[in-house]
């Protein structure tokens, strides 16, 4: 029998006016819960601020989710799964300015070694909240709760264990008037009654504000997210402006208003607002929010991975772990956002949060304290400063940018008994069909083991691929596995718990486990994470079912993740559970322009027949095999471009996959509905995926400038919108920016290891007038020697004028293991005019060394082998 406990009195710290409103709208207190025959329940309202209940003792678990629970009528005593009904009665608007944004709900186990999972459904049967990891307590929030809810707790893996459930209705208190102000040399303390606050001005245009109504400041996150505190900016001074105290630094002025205490950040002129609190800080039972005035045209981005969106003005953004892999989910969310007003904010906490970008902007975290870092600058500068604080994106091994393949080969419940070495037969298929393969996870399934690791690793190496393992058996096994040849680690729910600190620690530990036991770079994948995960792993958006909608909503998801410094974010090619040849091909096309991709095999069924369907890219036959091969080989050829973007991300924090707004922030069209479902791969490629069952793509938005159709050579002048673009199944709408300089490996390349190191191709899109520049980055691709300076760069400039085009290739500066002394170059130069002649360092090249394709308007030039320690110039001279 469940034991239910209500806390009846309304909290003393709730504002009296709100208490009166709530009292006037309260439901009558419920009758005592009935035992056995009915589901226990309780009401949260003005008369009942919290409730707790005790579950029965469960001898064993279900080994599954809520689908393992019988109907309530068949389980009246909750002997299989626990059920609890919760009714929430609050007045309209109650949640509009509440730091916690909903009803906090948690279950704490009597014996924390076991595992209960928590699910919440509304009165229509829709799941509205969940917590199904391995954390204790499991905790979630019922967002903007009002009405009846049904809580289901599943004893997933328990042994004679029970739990205590709790829920409460958070009420609020606001900061009062300023009562103390002091400080100097970059650090200032503030008090408003019992509320203590401190403002620290930090180097490089950063500010940290901490506040706590307990009267003392703490730092629960410690150094788990922020690895190294920036030094204080000591060149500050304060002044009394009457209504507020001002603190001036070289980069900004912070206003500390007196009645009531509020903060506002202004540019050095102390007139131009960066951000301004419109109301004082507000805290609740277990949360604190900041409220800011919203600018007339202010836009908001960030929040980590927010499935289905990249910009958030007018939206509510959740920062937590929802275990919702689909549109609207936020498993890889981060407590960070940036504003077009020239700032960004990171809340230094592992607590969930709710950010509403309405008017005003309210950002609440489920932690009764504020610890916020503010970064000044444009979007790229803010991303750079945020990632400097929490960790720059890691530098992947080059094979990590090649396609990956995942399946279970030992004890596979979906595909029958197999052996780990059977993975080599799949690797044979990639080789036979001339499709790149960088790595394979060979135990990717629940209950799947492995055997013959060294032999498997060697067999994969013969196919130029690396061995990867899912960490089902624990991160502590990595040492022996890495010594046997493992170079890729994939985390999963079993090893990241409820997200937050456990997820981040697991990511850091897995990366370290590879690096401590080899000379390789750690390469880790994870589906649940937190701020800082960009420093250690590839994030993927989880387990989805295939549909055209699945393809659609992922597009802004991965572009938007870049706005939080997440340089590697992706989803399973073709999803995990269902397969369709056409949708798979469409999905693979555009994901070829993401840095990291993976196929998930062994789990899917054909969308039409329902029969098991593996998802290797050749299995659907023609024309799909050829189409998939084309895009995988194009991805491979573009690896010098993508690898250079990775090196830039490790330095700047800005990843390759970008919403158009990031490169064109002054163009309102980049925030429109049409631009939502396209992205930039680096600054140069505009990708507009086909996400419908159609051979036509409408609504392709091209920003200002000249854009070249990658396939036809046709040019378009932006800003413009293309409708009716012909995109049969083999055509991904793909456009290249004027001025682009794109390095490529030779045609036919299928592996970074077997590429012709003595040839490098350059695809050039000269501007009619002006000069563009590009700096290629190269290193050995696999070891960490680059951190010691073992790398090379080569600068290329392209200048167009009235008489032709000049390509200037500089010497390759720097060295690394495997660097060649000389190489040939193959240039493809896009332009409408057939050259009269082509010169190499002033000498005319023979006609056999170059040609012009009038259909695609491309001049192709091949040079002899040239030494890398010297630069050279190629000149295309127009006929006129």
TrEMBL record:
Belongs to the glycosyl hydrolase 31 family. GO terms for biological process: carbohydrate metabolic process. Residues 759-831 form the DUF5110 domain. Residues 199-352 form the Glycoside hydrolase family 31 N-terminal domain. Residues 1-28 form the signal peptide. It comes from Streptomyces echinatus. Keywords: Glycosidase, Hydrolase, Signal. This is Alpha-glucosidase (Family GH31 glycosyl hydrolase). It comes from the Bacteria. GO terms for molecular function: carbohydrate binding; hydrolase activity, hydrolyzing O-glycosyl compounds. Residues 509-645 form the Glycoside hydrolase family 31 TIM barrel domain. Residues 656-742 form the Glycosyl hydrolase family 31 C-terminal domain.
């Amino acid at each position: 029998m469940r034991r239910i406990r209500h806390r009846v009195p309304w909290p003393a710290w709730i504002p009296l006016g709100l208490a009166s409103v709530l009292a006037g709208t309260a439901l009558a207190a419920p009758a005592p819960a009935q035992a056995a025959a009915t589901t226990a329940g309780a009401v949260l309202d003005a008369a009942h601020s919290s409730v707790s209940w005790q579950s029965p003792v469960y001898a064993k678990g279900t080994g599954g989710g809520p689908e393992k629970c019988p109907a309530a009528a068949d389980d009246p005593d909750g002997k299989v799964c626990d059920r609890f009904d919760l009714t929430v009665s609050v007045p309209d608007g109650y949640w509009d300015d509440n730091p916690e944004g909903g009803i906090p709900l948690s279950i704490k186990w009597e014996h924390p070694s076991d595992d209960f999972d928590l699910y919440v459904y509304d009165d229509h049967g829709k799941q509205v909240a969940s917590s199904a990891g391995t954390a204790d307590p499991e905790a979630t929030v019922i967002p903007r709760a009002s009405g009846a809810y049904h809580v289901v707790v599943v004893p997933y893996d328990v042994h004679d264990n029970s739990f205590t459930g709790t829920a409460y209705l958070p009420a609020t208190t606001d900061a009062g008037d300023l009562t103390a102000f002091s400080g100097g040399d970059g650090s200032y303390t503030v008090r408003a009654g019992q509320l203590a606050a401190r403002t620290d001005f930090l180097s490089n245009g950063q500010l940290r504000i901490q506040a706590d109504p307990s009267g003392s400041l703490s730092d629960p996150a410690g150094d788990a997210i922020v690895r190294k505190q920036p030094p204080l900016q000591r060149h500050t001074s304060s002044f009394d402006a009457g209504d507020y105290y001002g603190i001036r630094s070289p980069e900004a002025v912070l206003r500390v208003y007196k009645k009531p205490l509020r903060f506002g950040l202004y540019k050095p002129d102390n007139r131009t607002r960066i951000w301004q609190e419109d109301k004082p800080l507000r805290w609740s039972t277990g949360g604190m929010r900041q409220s800011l005035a919203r600018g007339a045209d202010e836009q908001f981005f960030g929040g980590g991975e927010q499935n289905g969106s990249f910009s958030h003005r007018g939206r509510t953004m959740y920062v937590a772990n929802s275990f919702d892999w689909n549109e609207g989910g936020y498993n890889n969310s981060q407590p960070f956002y940036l504003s077009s007003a020239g700032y960004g904010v990171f809340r230094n906490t592992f607590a969930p949060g709710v950010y509403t970008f309405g008017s005003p902007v309210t950002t609440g975290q489920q932690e009764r304290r504020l610890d916020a870092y503010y970064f000044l600058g444009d979007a790229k500068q803010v991303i750079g400063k945020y990632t400097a604080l929490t960790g720059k994106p890691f530098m992947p091994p080059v094979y990590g940018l090649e396609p990956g393949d995942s399946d279970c080969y030992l004890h596979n419940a979906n595909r029958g008994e197999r052996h780990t070495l059977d993975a080599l037969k799949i690797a044979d298929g990639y080789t036979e069909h001339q499709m790149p393969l960088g790595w394979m996870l060979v135990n990717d399934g629940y209950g799947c083991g492995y055997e013959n690791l060294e032999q498997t690793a060697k067999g994969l190496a013969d196919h130029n691929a690396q061995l990867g393992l899912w960490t089902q058996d624990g991160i502590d096994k990595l040492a022996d596995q890495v010594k046997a040849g493992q170079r890729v680690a994939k985390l999963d729910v079993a090893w990241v718990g409820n997200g937050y600190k456990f997820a981040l620690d697991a990511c850091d530990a897995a990366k370290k486990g590879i690096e401590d036991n080899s000379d390789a770079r750690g390469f880790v994948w994870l589906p649940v994470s937190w701020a800082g995960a960009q420093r250690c792993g590839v994030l993927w958006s989880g387990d989805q079912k295939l549909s055209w909608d699945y393809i659609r909503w992922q597009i802004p998801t991965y572009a938007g993740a870049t706005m939080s410094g997440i340089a590697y974010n992706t989803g399973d090619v073709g999803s995990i559970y269902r397969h369709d040849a056409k949708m798979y091909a469409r999905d693979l096309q555009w994901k070829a322009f993401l840095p990291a991709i993976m196929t998930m095999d062994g789990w899917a069924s054909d969308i039409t027949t329902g029969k098991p369907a593996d998802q290797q890219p050749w299995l659907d036959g023609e024309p799909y095999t050829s189409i998939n091969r084309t895009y995988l080989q194009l991805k491979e050829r573009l690896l010098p471009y993508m690898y250079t973007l990775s090196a830039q991300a490790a330095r700047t924090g800005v990843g390759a996959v970008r919403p158009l707004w990031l490169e064109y922030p002054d163009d309102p069209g980049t925030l429109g509905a049409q631009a939502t479902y396209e992205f930039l791969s680096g600054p140069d490629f505009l990708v507009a995926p086909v996400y419908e069952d159609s051979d036509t793509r409408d609504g392709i938005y091209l920003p200002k400038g000249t854009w070249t159709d990658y396939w036809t050579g046709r040019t378009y002048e932006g800003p413009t919108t293309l409708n009716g673009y012909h995109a049969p199944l083999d055509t991904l709408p793909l456009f290249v920016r004027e001025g682009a300089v794109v390095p490529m490996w030779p045609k036919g390349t299928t592996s970074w290891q077997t590429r012709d190191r003595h040839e490098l191709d350059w695809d050039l899109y000269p501007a009619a007038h002006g000069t563009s520049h590009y700096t290629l980055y190269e290193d050995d691709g696999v070891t960490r020697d680059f951190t010691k300076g073992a790398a090379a760069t080569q600068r290329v400039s392209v200048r167009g004028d009235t008489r032709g085009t000049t390509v200037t290739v500089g010497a390759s500066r720097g060295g690394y293991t495997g660097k060649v002394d000389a190489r040939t170059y193959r240039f493809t130069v896009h332009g409408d005019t057939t050259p009269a002649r082509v010169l190499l360092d002033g000498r005319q090249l023979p006609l056999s060394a170059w040609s012009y394709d009038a259909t695609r308007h491309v001049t192709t030039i091949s040079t002899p082998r040239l030494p890398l320690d010297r630069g050279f110039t190629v000149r295309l001279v127009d006929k006129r």
